[in-house]
Design brief:
Structural class: alpha/beta
Strand content: 35-45%
Distance between the termini: 17 Å
Shape: globular
Oligomer: single chain
CATH class: Alpha Beta
Length: about 200
């Protein structure tokens, strides 16, 4: 939502991989003059993992092991990152935020997300079992300076998020630096509870 306006300037990547249905992938869009959004949401996981490995996320620093896409939970899920050391396991679910509502406000989700609610329930279960559980919003829109939940878009997700926060799941929000040459994690942003 709000990233596919007619006549917007976009960036594509090209591949010669014969297994791909299409040779181009839409990567970036200029949402306003000078503002970029990375609409390739799968890149958020790579950006966050790279930042964790480089010690750039203070709240997630110090773990000995970093694993991606590990099966867990009761609903046949895969955690984006599993961080571990001798003392604890930390389950990190990463969500890409691109929906800009104006005045710097970003919201998640931008569509009804039953899968997103499932991931929240799985995080709450890990917290209940004594592990650390973190929901990390990776903001891939340079116009966004704070993030909230889009209750008007997905009321179930909003309620589930409130429930898991009450249960002890941590919420982190980080911005990114976006350019045609690449994307990297930048700084922590505030999470605000709104509808």
């Amino acid at each position: 939502m709000n990233c596919a306006q007619p006549d917007s300037r976009i960036w594509l990547s090209h591949t010669d991989d014969a297994k791909r249905k299409y040779p181009y992938t839409w990567q970036l869009v200029e949402t306003d003059p000078g503002e970029l959004a990375c609409i390739h949401s799968a890149l958020a996981n790579n950006v966050v993992k790279e930042a964790v490995l480089e010690g750039k996320i203070a709240e997630l620093d110090g773990y000995d092991r970093v694993q991606s896409e590990v099966r867990y939970g009761e609903e046949k899920s895969r955690i984006d990152l599993l961080l571990s050391d001798a003392q604890e396991q930390c389950y990190v679910e990463i969500k890409c935020v691109t929906l800009h509502m104006g005045d710097g406000l970003g919201l998640f989700p931008d569509a009804v997300s039953a899968r997103g609610s499932k991931h929240l329930r799985e995080l709450a279960l890990m917290k209940q079992q004594g592990h650390r559980a973190v929901l990390l919003f990776c903001v891939q829109n340079t116009a966004i300076d704070r993030v909230g939940v889009a209750a008007a878009i997905d009321v179930k997700y909003a309620q589930t998020l409130q429930d898991v926060i009450t249960a002890g799941v941590e919420v982190l929000v980080y911005s990114t630096v976006i350019a045609p040459e690449g994307i990297a994690l930048k700084e922590r942003l505030p999470f605000i509870e709104i509808g």
